[in-house]
Automatic annotation (TrEMBL):
<keyword id="KW-0479">Metal-binding</keyword>
<dbReference type="InterPro" id="IPR003739">
    <property type="entry name" value="Lys_aminomutase/Glu_NH3_mut"/>
</dbReference>
<dbReference type="GO" id="GO:0003824">
    <property type="term" value="F:catalytic activity"/>
</dbReference>
<protein>
    <submittedName>
        <fullName>Lysine 2,3-aminomutase</fullName>
    </submittedName>
</protein>
<dbReference type="InterPro" id="IPR058240">
    <property type="entry name" value="rSAM_sf"/>
</dbReference>
<keyword id="KW-0411">Iron-sulfur</keyword>
<keyword id="KW-0949">S-adenosyl-L-methionine</keyword>
<dbReference type="InterPro" id="IPR013785">
    <property type="entry name" value="Aldolase_TIM"/>
</dbReference>
<dbReference type="GO" id="GO:0046872">
    <property type="term" value="F:metal ion binding"/>
</dbReference>
<comment type="similarity">
    <text>Belongs to the radical SAM superfamily. KamA family.</text>
</comment>
<keyword id="KW-0408">Iron</keyword>
<keyword id="KW-0663">Pyridoxal phosphate</keyword>
<dbReference type="GO" id="GO:0051539">
    <property type="term" value="F:4 iron, 4 sulfur cluster binding"/>
</dbReference>
<keyword id="KW-0004">4Fe-4S</keyword>
<dbReference type="InterPro" id="IPR007197">
    <property type="entry name" value="rSAM"/>
</dbReference>
């Protein structure tokens, strides 16, 4: 048994705040009525949820609404384009009914590219002629699994690229209770070595539920299964999960069980800002997870106003290495939801990455980025260079829909405003990127937009 020694930390009751009750948050008195109304307007379109830990321990309210963690969780006006904001604001002011607001919200949502990177159409595998709705399989080695009870989070990030599943756009949800189908799929696909359990946040599940997914996976004794990854923001949004929550010990023991069975447990933690990894409780949670033998790796998108400075990333990576955590990915924010607000020009993203990377010892240089999770794969911006008088972006695929595409340098015309792969054209007068030839004809006109 694991003992947490959690006597230093008192038990905390999780209290969520949503559109319905955010005005009850005592710290709200620091905001103007206009700012509160903006939360209501934007929160009617994009998901909004905060909780008592984020509010009391992470946000610096003297700095709100410019505080990075405030922006991370509370919707600010600029998240919506002016026209969308004004339409919704007028509707709410006119006293429109819930249904009218919902209908308009859905109309706006459809204009925010709710399904980037072809997630719905291209990555859902088949098993015995049936579409496996709770599974995505894009890269040869790794299958994503979306347990149905893990499709929410302890709080919502305002940049979230999975936002449609939190606002009730049912068609955009992936979920299955059917771990048996996943096991069947893994048996028939021995090339899959990794299962990535994701959400939402699978760590919102109580240990008893998580066990119902993990135990069968272990008992199946799949020869190909080497690594179980859990993608989670819980260390940032609810670290009590691993220290004082009622199921903390049970959760940690489940982690240990995975490790003891000979499978590597990779805890893929989302940290967007150093503040999230500096509280006493998160440090304890990190230690507790590490004591199970699980290894924590980290990833985050690069976000305007939250972490768009190299020193922030350098600090984050340095602290992580010191805590025995492995920096893993820096992402470019996806082309969905509030990309127009959060997006950062690719050239600037590369500068930020490079200047942060230079500030870490080799131990932190396990991180890769900036990386765009686009339709062909994970595209890394290696830099901007001038080749025979033509200024170009140098790129490569870290992951590819086709494994043979990985790690070949390729070039795009320089475009100072580009914020996503869609904005790039092949350099040197070529009509296509090398990987576009292989993609099916039916997709070829869409390839750079998804
Ligand atoms: C990022 C990602 C993975 C995991 O890729 P790694 O480079 O192995 O971490 C798997 N599937 C999808 C769809 C992804 O976007
Ligand atoms: S934790 Fe992940 S899935 Fe949850 S809101 Fe944030 S980005 Fe979205």
């Amino acid at each position: 048994m694991i003992t947490n020694g959690h006597s230093d930390f008192s038990v905390q009751n999780y209290k969520p705040y949503t559109l319905r009750n955010f005005r009850e948050i005592p710290q709200m008195e620091k905001l103007s009525e206009e700012e509160k109304f903006a939360i209501e307007v934007v929160g009617s379109v994009l998901p909004f949820k905060a909780n008592n830990y984020v509010i009391d321990e992470l946000i610096d309210w003297d700095n709100a609404p410019d505080d990075p963690i405030f922006i991370l969780t509370f919707p600010v006006k600029e998240l919506l384009k002016d026209e969308h904001f004004n339409t919704m604001a007028d509707l709410i002011r006119s006293g429109a009914s819930k249904n009218e607001i919902k209908a308009k919200a859905n109309e706006i949502r459809l204009q925010l590219n709710p399904n980037p990177a072809g997630q719905m159409d291209h990555n859902v595998p088949q098993y015995h002629k049936e579409k496996l709705e709770g599974i995505q399989h894009k890269y040869r080695e790794t299958a994503l699994f979306f347990p149905s009870q893990g499709q929410t989070c302890h709080a919502y990030c305002s940049f979230c690229f999975r936002w449609p599943q939190f606002v009730g756009m049912k068609d955009y949800r992936f979920a299955t209770r059917e771990i048996e189908k996943l096991i069947g799929y893994l048996r028939e696909n021995p090339q899959v070595t990794d299962v990535l359990i994701t959400g939402g946040d699978p760590m919102v599940m109580k240990a008893e539920i998580l066990e119902q997914y993990i135990n069968p996976l272990l008992e199946a004794d799949l020869p190909n299964l080497q690594n179980i990854r859990i993608g989670s923001k819980s260390l940032s949004y609810w670290p009590y999960k691993y220290v004082t929550d009622r199921d903390a010990n049970k959760t940690l023991n489940l982690f240990r069980k995975v490790v003891d069975s000979g499978i590597h447990l990779a805890f893929m933690a989302h940290f967007n800002h150093p503040v999230e990894q500096e509280t006493a409780i998160v440090k304890k949670a990190i230690q507790n997870i590490q004591q199970t033998g699980a290894v924590i790796r980290t990833q985050s998108p690069l976000l305007y106003k939250i972490n768009d400075h190299p020193d922030i990333w350098a600090k984050m990576w340095q602290q992580q290495v010191q805590m025995g955590i492995i920096p893993y990915y820096m992402f470019v924010v996806r082309n969905t939801g509030a990309q127009h607000f959060y997006g950062i020009p690719l050239e600037r993203a590369w500068h930020i990455f490079r200047e942060a990377y230079q500030q870490t010892s080799g131990l932190g240089r396990t991180v890769r980025g900036p990386s765009m999770s686009a339709h062909p794969g994970k595209v890394q911006i290696l830099g901007v260079e001038e080749i025979h008088g033509e200024k170009v972006f140098v790129l490569r695929l870290i992951q590819g829909r086709n494994p043979d595409w990985v790690d070949r340098p390729f070039f795009a015309e320089y475009n100072p405003d580009a914020i996503w792969l869609d904005d790039l054209k092949p350099a040197f007068g070529r009509s296509k990127f090398f990987f576009e030839k292989d993609l099916k004809k039916s997709q070829s006109n869409k390839v750079r937009s998804v």
